């Protein structure tokens, strides 16, 4: 009993001793400009109660004291907002910048060509400069370029970036530097562009060298020259194999290890040359540095039956096989009718004028020219040049809409197929340039897939059909009945007509008109 009394007495003393201490603490509070915040201690620290803090709004004009709780809470909220946990996002290599709108894209096309879109996304680092210091002079010497640094050239000269692009061209996916994102992406964009540069260059060359030949044998010649099986021979002829395989003997590698890196470097190399020096330099490197021979036995087409040519060719092609120097150094005369007069004559010889004056010429041609926006306004020195160009343009349009089933046995000159051939190549190149400018961060393989999907034969002709131009195609009666209700037969024919129109616009007005037809008139969705 005495023990219980003592415990009761001690508890009373403890409570009496805590009571004034708690009262003194209740009077202590943080100073604030509006209201105090009391802080209370509880007698049982083992079971604390929830502490409620009431915040009072403070006007923005009033500055809070340094130790104010409102200020501390505000700073904490701001810090949480700045360091919020990041959302789960895809890897950076899949993130693309938003595409440019048409106005900015047009300005970029006019001010600087596609050169800026193939430069690396970040500055070259020490490892990149090490490769340039060790190997770039060897590459430039093998390709026949001066050894001075291209950085010393003027800002308005596209060749100023040649050293950078040449370095990127040799960084194929199997080399050491491919782990760097800016190197890998820039190299893939270069080979994406270079493959279409090569196709167009050789198409123009063979069209002018063989004016009586159909495009079928020409495609075989092109494949014989730049097919992936033959590319290692050209690389070895230019002594560039040590830059592609610095640690291996190229001849001892198996095909699947040798051909993909060589093809990637070869395409990227011509993408860089085209961006810096243009198409004439592409011909020089192809035929002078790599030593390609269009008359070599391994690139000759197979023999095939061909109808005799009853038409005569243009005077500059008669009995004369043009060399690559003739094609590379050709400049049209000052009063030329066309942007590419010799290429136009290779596709539409003078003998085709006998097809003018038929029903299509009077009935369909005005409607087609109105839909396509022809003829374009050109400032000529004399009006006779404008009239002659418009006559040739009308003849070319008729040949573009004349299906082979209608004229194949009347004149075997393959005008439609030749226009389609050059149109397909210029269409591929223009679309590649457009995609490079539109998607500045996209890797080459993504652009390749996008390019293929837009220009696939299955969809390409629909842009022609949306303008109802397929109604003006001239078929033979038998083919007309077969195509009437068969979409699978009709769609490839409309695709061919569309490509022939691109070829005609390129030879008559040049590449800007091909861009107009593809992106303003047809509104290709890319």
From TrEMBL:
UniProt cross-references to SMART domains, sorted A to Z: RIBOc (SM00535)
PROSITE patterns: RNASE_3_2
Keywords: Chloroplast, mRNA processing, mRNA splicing, Plastid, Repeat, Ribonucleoprotein, RNA-binding, Transit peptide
Keyword Transmembrane appears in the UniProt entry: no
Annotated stretches, region: Disordered: 78-97
InterPro entries: RNase_III_dom (IPR000999), RNase_III_sf (IPR036389)
Ranges of compositional bias, category Basic residues: 78-95
RNase III domain span: 165-278
GO CC aspect terms: chloroplast; nucleus; ribonucleoprotein complex
A Pfam entry, by short name: Ribonuclease_3
GO BP, one annotated term: RNA splicing
GO MF annotations in UniProt: double-stranded RNA binding; ribonuclease III activity
Subcellular location as annotated: Plastid, Chloroplast
Subunit structure: Interacts with RNA. Part of large ribonucleo-protein particles that contain CAF1 and/or CAF2.
Free-text function comment from the UniProt entry: Binds specific group II introns in chloroplasts and facilitates their splicing. Acts on both subgroup IIA and subgroup IIB introns. The substrates of the subgroup II also require the CRM domain proteins CAF1 or CAF2. Binds both single-stranded and double-stranded RNA non-specifically, but lacks endonuclease activity. Required for plastid ribosome biogenesis.
Name by which UniProt lists this protein: Ribonuclease III domain-containing protein RNC1, chloroplastic
């Amino acid at each position: 009993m005495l023990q219980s009394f003592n415990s009761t007495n001690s508890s009373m003393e403890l409570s009496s001793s805590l009571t004034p201490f708690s009262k003194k603490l209740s009077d202590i509070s943080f100073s604030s400009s509006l209201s105090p915040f009391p802080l209370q201690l509880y007698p049982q620290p083992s079971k604390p109660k929830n502490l409620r803090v009431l915040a009072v709004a403070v006007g923005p004009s009033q500055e809070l004291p340094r130790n104010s709780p409102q200020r501390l809470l505000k700073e904490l909220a701001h810090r949480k907002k700045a360091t919020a946990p990041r959302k789960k996002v895809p890897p950076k290599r899949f993130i693309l910048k938003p595409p440019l709108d048409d106005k900015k894209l047009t300005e970029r096309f006019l001010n600087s060509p596609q050169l800026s879109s193939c430069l690396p996304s970040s500055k070259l680092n020490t490892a990149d400069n090490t490769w340039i210091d060790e190997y770039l002079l060897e590459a430039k010497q093998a390709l026949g370029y001066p050894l001075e640094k291209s950085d010393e050239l003027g800002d308005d000269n596209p060749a100023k970036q040649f050293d950078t692009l040449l370095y990127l061209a040799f960084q194929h996916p199997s080399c050491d530097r491919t782990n760097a994102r800016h190197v890998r992406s820039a190299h893939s964009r270069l080979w994406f562009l270079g493959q279409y540069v090569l196709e167009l260059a050789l198409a123009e060359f063979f069209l002018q060298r063989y004016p009586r030949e159909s495009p079928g044998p020409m495609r075989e010649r092109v494949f014989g020259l730049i097919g992936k099986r033959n590319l290692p021979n050209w690389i070895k002829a230019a002594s560039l194999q040590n830059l592609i395989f610095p640690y291996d003997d190229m001849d001892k590698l198996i095909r699947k290890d040798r051909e993909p890196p060589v093809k990637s470097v070869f395409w990227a190399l011509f993408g860089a040359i085209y961006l810096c020096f243009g198409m004439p330099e592409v011909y020089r490197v192809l035929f002078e540095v790599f030593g390609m021979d269009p008359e070599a036995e391994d690139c000759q087409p197979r023999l095939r039956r061909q109808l005799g040519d009853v038409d005569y060719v243009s005077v500059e092609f008669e009995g004369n096989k043009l060399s690559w120097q003739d094609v590379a150094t050709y400049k049209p005369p000052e009063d030329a009718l066309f942007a590419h007069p010799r290429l136009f004559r290779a596709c539409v010889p003078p003998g085709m004028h006998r097809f003018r004056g038929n029903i299509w010429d009077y009935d369909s041609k005005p409607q087609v020219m109105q839909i396509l926006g022809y003829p374009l306004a050109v400032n000529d020195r004399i009006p006779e040049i404008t009239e002659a160009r418009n006559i040739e343009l009308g003849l070319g349009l008729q040949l573009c809409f004349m299906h082979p089933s209608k004229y194949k046995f009347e004149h075997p000159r393959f005008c439609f197929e030749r226009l389609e051939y050059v149109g397909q190549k210029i269409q591929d190149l223009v679309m590649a340039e457009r995609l490079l400018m539109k998607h500045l961060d996209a890797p080459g393989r993504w652009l390749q897939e996008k390019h293929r999907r837009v220009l696939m034969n299955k969809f390409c002709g629909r842009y022609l059909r949306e303008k109802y131009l397929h109604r003006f195609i001239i078929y033979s009666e038998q083919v007309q009945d077969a195509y009437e209700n068969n979409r699978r037969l009709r769609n490839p024919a409309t695709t061919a007509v569309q490509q022939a129109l691109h070829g005609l616009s390129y030879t008559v007005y040049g590449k800007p008109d091909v861009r107009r037809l593809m992106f303003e008139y047809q509104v290709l969705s890319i």
